[in-house]
TrEMBL record:
Xref: Gene3D superfamilies: Vaccinia Virus protein VP39
SUPFAM superfamilies (alphabetical): S-adenosyl-L-methionine-dependent methyltransferases
InterPro entries (alphabetical): Methyltransf_25, SAM-dependent_MTases_sf
GO molecular function annotations of the record: methyltransferase activity
Record domain Methyltransferase: where: 39-128
This protein's name: Trans-aconitate methyltransferase
Lineage of the organism: Bacteria, Pseudomonadati, Pseudomonadota, Alphaproteobacteria, Rhodobacterales
A single BP term in Gene Ontology: methylation
């Protein structure tokens, strides 16, 4: 992966993975975060979920962090005038807390489900919860094309039972789960497609390779969306 080319493509996109306001509202309603609660957006990317999180804690705070400084800068620009929001560069495996909710959209795989939940248990406030989305198989017989793609990208991917076993191994109970909708995927892919089309003319070899990889991701999901997706889970320490 040429990271300069990757960030040329992904710079200033609204999202860095599937998700939408409907799925966020569903999760936050289940989590029962108080109006003056503290939320951590772990792996916030460019910060597209921050406004939705703030809507659930109008008298509270959101701390958003990401490892990549470019995404941190983008998210910080979006909320520079809101004193309820803190955006910083940091490791989501080393949070401070306490938080009433840790929200992590499509980023838990960097640590592993069990590992992330174990690390986060100590920084949750009493009664606190974690809401996260994770790539997941929805069939035990995926097509060759879908399996080949994910064996390259994330060979550890498992099914719903496997995700739930990882949650249980960290000592958490599942409050609720549902797959992300097609609309949540298109909220990521539609702007990404437009950026690919914009960058394709005159792209260097390195950038063209990154564009090809992202086009393959989009095409694979659209052809095999019934076989896999992102599972959104709301969990709480047992």
């Amino acid at each position: 992966m040429d990271w300069d080319a990757f960030f040329t493509l992904h710079s200033d996109l609204p999202r860095e993975g599937p998700g939408d306001r409907d799925s966020l509202d569903w999760a936050l309603s289940l989590a029962g975060v108080p109006h003056d609660g503290a939320i951590c957006d772990a792996g916030c990317g460019p910060g597209d979920d921050i406004a939705g999180l703030l809507a659930h804690v109008p008298d509270g705070t959101v701390e958003a962090l990401d490892l990549y400084d470019g995404f941190v800068a983008q998210a910080a620009r979006r909320f520079i005038t809101d004193p309820r929001v803190t955006v910083r560069q940091g490791d989501m495996g080393a949070l401070s807390g306490p938080y009433d909710l840790i929200w992590s959209a499509g980023a838990v795989y960097f640590l592993g489900v069990t590992e992330a939940l174990t690390a986060w248990r100590t920084v949750l406030a009493p009664g606190g919860a974690v809401a996260f989305s994770q790539a997941c198989w929805f069939t035990d017989r995926p097509s060759d094309a879908a399996r080949a793609y994910w064996e390259r990208e994330y060979p550890q991917m498992t099914d719903i039972a496997g995700v739930n076993a990882q949650i249980a191994a960290a000592g958490y109970d599942v409050v609720g789960q549902r797959p992300l909708s097609d609309a949540a995927w298109e909220a990521y892919f539609t702007p990404l497609e437009a950026r690919i089309a914009e960058l394709r003319p005159g792209a260097s070899a390195a950038l063209a390779a990154v564009l090809d990889e992202n086009e393959a991701e989009i095409a694979t999901w659209r052809a095999h969306r019934a076989e896999y997706g992102y599972l959104l889970s709301v969990v709480r320490p047992a």
